[in-house]
Amino acid sequence: MTTLAEWAYTELLGYPLLFWLGIATYALVAATFGVMRFGRRPWKFRWHKGLGRTALLVATAHGLLALAAYLA
After folding, report:
1. Bridge partners of residue 49, in order along the sequence
2. Which residues pair with 11 in a beta bridge?
């Protein structure tokens, strides 16, 4: 757990990795929503699925690092 907590607080551009993963998660969820919000073309559904899966992966990493930092 301490290794994950160290990763969570590794600084990139002055902010911890945990911060950047939170921003990335929010941006991916917004992009996923935006792709389907504007128009209903077949190619947009592929982008929607891909962005959704990526958002889920990044959100899981963000949550895991947050828990590790909190519990360590």
Report:
1. none
2. 16
**pLDDT tens profile 33-67:** 888 877 667 667 778 889 999 999 999 999 999 99
C-beta separation of 3 from 70 below 8 A: no
Cα separation, 31 vs 11, whole angstroms: 26
pLDDT tens, residue by residue, 16-34: 989 999 999 999 999 988 8
**Helical (H) or strand (E) element with 11:** strand 11-12
Beta carbons within 8 Å of 14's beta carbon, 6+ residues apart: none
Provide the token pair at 38.
Answer: 């504007």
Residue whose token pair is 């389907």 = 36
65 touches 19 (CB < 8 A)? no
